[in-house]
């Protein structure tokens, strides 16, 4: 399964503190905890002794560092997974094979990322992360009963603004979409010239305006939206405000979503920016959860498409070409 070789977000970095945290990725139950060196450990959430859930245990001081203690018989597992202490047999020295199942974990974009299989591989890029002038804020998590690809398509879709987000991001009688361009990139796709009519285009504007966006798919379950600065807009020159969508495919049809905002809005506080994002996403959620099938059909004949859906048709072909199998319905077309 190629998805296991990709890096996926599983939790906000701030959530992983002293107590072990249970998360799920691609149907696997994982436990996250932070070791004495501050590094995140990501393990199978199952004790190799008798299968108890390690996330019910606790992080304890051990041999000058810390270890994760199983809730059942108190076995201790050090960073890296080695069993280092068996309370029922205090003099026993566990052999190297006595260990928890450990996965690669990294921190980036305010999130913890885990890769279940393979070596190397890049995290999804987010260029605005590196612009020190922009504020970075994580919004979420939002749990959604649908597949990750349905969420990516919703993020790429401007034609729903006037309906799902009426009065917030669009209006039903201003829902026309101008033609836009889509092209392949090494990581995914790039859609440019995406224009939408918006009731309030920036925090500073009081009038509706046409706003231009650029959308990128940066990994099978990640995308970035960048607002193309327009000459007349208020703001500081050169700012490229972006929002990244990062999705954890907990299961094929169950997802956890975060947005990473890189914004030049220095007026509203974090809670206000999050509240806005919460409102928008909670408008999307019931519609997303109503879509059937929940897994995205890669057979382009399975649903209807128009020129306004170019980005989504392109995305389906990209998933098919990458051999993505989780959260999709396979195509019967060999093209
Ligand atoms: Fe974990 Fe026995 S099941 S120590
Ligand atoms: Co929406």
Task: Provide the fold topology.
Elements: E1 8-12, E2 21-25, E3 28-34, E4 40-44, E5 58-62, E6 65-69, E7 76-78, E8 83-85, E9 102-108, E10 111-115, E11 135-144, H1 148-156, H2 161-164, E12 181-184, E13 189-198, E14 209-219, E15 222-227, E16 242-251, E17 254-263, H3 270-290, E18 296-297, H4 310-322, E19 328-329
Parallel strand pairs: 18-19
Antiparallel strand pairs: 1-10, 2-3, 3-4, 4-9, 5-6, 6-7, 7-8, 9-10, 11-17, 12-13, 13-14, 14-15, 15-16, 16-17
The protein binds FE2/S2 (inorganic) cluster (FES) and cobalt (II) ion.
The site of cobalt (II) ion has 5 residues, from loops.
Word description of this protein:
- This protein has 335 residues and is α+β, with helices and mostly antiparallel strands.
- Helix content is 14%, strand content 34%.
- The chain contains 4 helices and 19 strands.
- It has helices at residues 148-156, 161-164, 270-290, 310-322; strands at residues 8-12, 21-25, 28-34, 40-44, 58-62, 65-69, 76-78, 83-85, 102-108, 111-115, 135-144, 181-184, 189-198, 209-219, 222-227, 242-251, 254-263, 296-297, 328-329.
- The longest helix is centred in the C-terminal third of the chain and has 21 residues, at 270-290.
- The protein is elongated.
- Residues 154, 160, 164-165, 284 line the site of cobalt (II) ion.
- The site of cobalt (II) ion (CO) has 5 residues, from loops.
């Amino acid at each position: 399964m190629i998805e296991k070789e990709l890096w996926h977000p599983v939790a906000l970095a701030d959530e992983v503190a002293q107590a072990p945290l249970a998360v799920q990725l691609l149907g696997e139950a994982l436990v996250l905890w932070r070791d004495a060196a501050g590094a995140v450990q990501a393990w199978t959430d199952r004790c190799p002794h008798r299968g108890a859930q390690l996330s019910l245990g606790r992080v304890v001081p051990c041999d000058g560092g810390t270890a994760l203690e199983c809730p059942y018989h108190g076995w201790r597992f050090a960073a890296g997974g080695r069993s280092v202490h068996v309370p029922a047999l205090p003099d026993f020295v566990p052999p190297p094979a006595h260990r928890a199942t450990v996965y690669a974990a990294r921190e980036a974009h305010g999130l913890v990322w885990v890769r279940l299989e393979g070596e190397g591989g890049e995290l999804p890029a987010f260029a605005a992360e590196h612009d020190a002038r922009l504020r970075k804020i994580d919004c979420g998590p939002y749990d959604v009963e649908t597949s990750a690809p349905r969420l990516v398509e919703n993020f790429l879709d401007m034609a729903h603004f006037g309906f799902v987000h009426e009065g917030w991001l669009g209006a039903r009688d201003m829902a026309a979409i101008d033609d836009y361009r889509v092209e392949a990139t090494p990581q995914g796709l790039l859609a440019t010239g995406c224009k939408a009519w918006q009731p309030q285009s920036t925090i500073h504007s009081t009038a509706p305006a046409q706003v231009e966006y650029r959308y990128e798919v940066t990994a099978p379950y990640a995308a970035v939206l960048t607002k193309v600065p327009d000459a007349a807009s208020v703001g500081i020159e050169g700012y490229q405000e972006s929002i990244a969508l990062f999705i954890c495919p907990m299961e094929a049809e169950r997802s956890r979503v975060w947005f990473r905002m890189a914004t030049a809005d220095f007026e509203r506080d974090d809670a206000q920016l999050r509240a806005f994002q919460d409102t928008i996403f909670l408008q999307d959620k019931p519609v997303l959860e109503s879509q059937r099938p929940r897994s995205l059909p890669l057979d382009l004949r399975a649903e209807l498409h128009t020129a306004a859906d170019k980005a989504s048709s392109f995305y389906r072909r990209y998933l098919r070409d990458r051999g993505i199998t989780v959260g999709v319905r396979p195509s019967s077309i060999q093209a």
